[in-house]
């Protein structure tokens, strides 16, 4: 088994550009499948989830090679933080990276397959099966996020727990094409560093690449380590983060008790989310607190956008959004270009109406 995995890793390293094209093609296919034939939605979701899982595995193989070969590529604040946490740099109590990494990847994989699992449970067990699957998945996600929140010493939970792909697969070269001595290891710190001649040599852009590399390492805010990109929470922000973590589970539990067309679960969920978001604001100016880092502000901005999902959740969707969406689709269907968007909207509309995780938002 280990030999087979080693051969596949070697295949990936030698065929990175072709793999990139294949991943993109399969993802594009999933956008046009819904509504085309019976069980097309499930087939589309199965392809999409599987491609994402395989891409995640490919990233574990290719990201290290890409970082070594493209040292001048700036790393985003999000990737700096998540890579540091996965290496165990921020583990509470000096713990190893193992628990944090395992939980982070478990949460990522569950999020990839949650819609597919909901569809499969519905097909096998009907509405009861769907209800049990949704509740079970939300419990697993809450447990994972709770563990990550504690292991990170009360730092906010990000929209993703693994690094995003910040390199071009088409530019990753196989190991045989890369000089062996491209790095050196510091004796005191044990950290691996890129050799200066690998940054400045002419075939990599010379002086311009050297400047770009140095700028990518420059700090644009007071963050001495990746841990400073997200600061430990205290006071109201801790309570707000707990509400944000627990909100999806409480919403599901309230709907099971009060029914899907009751406004109480919808209002409880919205109130929890609004309180959580309010802890990021200076209520005198209704702007972000000055103490928030740029990465924290970016995450809160994303959470504000997630409020739009409330337009697609019942009972608000059935009472207000659906009629207006149908009117837009009907009117746009007679206009060039816009009709294409309207057609995609019509194909995906049943998915929003039927599946919980399409509109859960978190």
From TrEMBL:
The keyword Secreted does not apply. It comes from the Eukaryota. GO terms for biological process: peroxisome organization. Pfam families: Pex16. One of its GO terms (cellular component) is peroxisomal membrane. It is found in: Peroxisome membrane. PANTHER family: PEROXISOMAL MEMBRANE PROTEIN PEX16 (PTHR13299:SF0). This is Peroxisomal membrane protein PEX16. It comes from Geranomyces variabilis.
